[in-house]
Here is the input.
Amino acid sequence: MSAELRKQHTEVLIHTGQHYDEEMSAAFFRSLRIPEPAYNLGIGSGSHGEQTGRMLAELEKLLAAVAPDAVLVYGDTNSTLAGALAAAKMHLPVAHVEAGLRSHNRLMPEEINRVVADHLSTLLFCPTQTAVDQLAAEGVRAGVHLVGDVMYDVALATAQEARGRGVLARLGLTRKEYLLCTVHRPANTDDPRNLRGIAGALGASGRRVVFPVHPRTRKALERDGLTLGENVVLTEPLDYLDFQALLMEAEKVLTDSGGVQKEAYFFGVPCITLRDETEWIETVEDGWNVLVGADKQEILAAIEGFNPTGTKNKSFGDGHAAEHIVEILSGIR
Here is the structure.
């Protein structure tokens, strides 16, 4: 997105520091060749209110100094919410990428962030028709654009490079003979019962499982004294390209990540979602994603019995979402 934006505009990239693990952040910027941020606020961890409040204070000062034509926010993080709030209060146009997504679970902080950001936005860039329809149901019709999914752009653009990484050989894996797992959402990591159910299912699966462990999840496993079976290969968090290579060649993926659900769909990998709801309902409707929560037996049943086949019929765009977004942004100068 940055590369396309900088062809026609001056981009001032702000890193709030919400995702504060230095190596994870640096690896993400490196692997996707995202330019270094112009500013890093270094906000770090804290409660949702504390974190968002610190971001608001710093962003307000920064936006006053930079005086941008518009503020572009992505996704559904606390950074998204803070950026939208700060810009709206300063009467700056807000443009939201990934607008219109809903899990319909207000217990998720991300859901609150999505709803507020959408209702503050001047331009709403929707990845799917479902998102457009959801906004219309909420009375939001002005400034709504169906542009496709920027993650689909990235997946298509980097797939060949990812396949050349050799990560399977490094980990001693054979394509389609392992499961890939990610767990990071507080609903799973902060609930010992949920985490125990997931860990128990992985160990009892009888499959080789590759599990890149998020720092939050590692601490939670240690907190609850949970050990995983010898069939589970724990790794440090992987950069985007290594992870994408593992995903493309996995038999199935188990995840509580919204992004991983989509990427599994893009590459035709069956996805077992460790949640009771999803904002990417298209992947479930098309039969390539199943919601199982954190129950050990439900997870094991899906590992054995969830085997979707057939074509994928849901659209996430044409692979040029970033270009469509930039073209629309050019109209507000």
